[in-house]
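Escalated from tier 1: pyridoxal-5'-phosphate holo job.
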Amino acid sequence: MIFNIENSINQQIYVPESYGVQLELKREDAIHEFVSGNKYRKLKYNLQEAKKQGSKTLLTFGGAFSNHIAAVAAAGALLDFKTIGVIRGEELQPHSNATLQFASQHGMKFMFVSREMYREKVEKHVIDQLKKEFGDFYLVPEGGTNGLAVKGCEEIITETDRDFHYLCCAVGTGGTISGIINSSGPNQKVIGFPALKGNFLQKDINNFVSKTNWELNTDYHFGGYAKINAELVTFINEFKKVNHIPLDPVYTGKMLYGIFDLINKGYFEKGSKILAIHTGGLQGVEGMNAKLKIKNLPIIE
Ligand SMILES: Cc1ncc(COP(=O)(O)O)c(C=O)c1O
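Tier 2 regenerated the structure:
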């Protein structure tokens, strides 16, 4: 078995008893070392579809530190697909950072494009150009989010999670939370913590869901995508010391910082049971630490 979904257990997180709430973390990050967390869920049905269509090559898009790029490269190497990453930033090279090096070592070929071309990446003229350059491919969207990805993410929450009152996850493109909303029960509330600024997400998520038992809390993006400060680093290090679970600085660290802040502010009623999803992303720690060192900030341990 390449992917171990039975490793995704719910683990108790320490919360002082006086708050009167219970917090557990679903360890989706433990499914696979490199195709971890929501990445496995989002790729599962897409890769089945790619095989069904007879595609030998996966092409996808991402930023320089993208967890999705690393996961597609690793999944391609495991399941015998060639992989192509169209990366935002024409100044970059395959060895610019740990994520790109990892993807390159797993066989991914890159096309580094300008921000302008990246914005037009799904338009016909760009796709035609990519086909001319690389031949036929199965296109996995940026962040991996599409209908098949949402279907995979619907499998994150299972029958045994029914007694949680709150389901929490980090949000990037909205695919993961959409799956969680679709499989949530009528008495459960889903809270998403966007890792980036902007209010386009509500609409994107509504493309995949029809339920209304969810909300986005936009207070914990720390200034935007991959923005970080010493307080967040300290929180991540403290969380690991207490719970022996590593968090990533772009998604899960911000989500759990937010959950603890909300617990502290009394947002959750006494007796609440909260389930947070560990969606992985740990491959990004090395690259973030390199940036933190340059800025003379504390690093993630
Ligand atoms: C570790 C991690 N958690 C959460 C997310 C957010 O997932 P989504 O893009 O489906 O909202 C991502 C990004 O895809 C991620 O890499």
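The beta strands are 10-13, 22-26, 57-62, 82-88, 109-113, 138-140, 166-171, 189-194, 214-216, 273-277.
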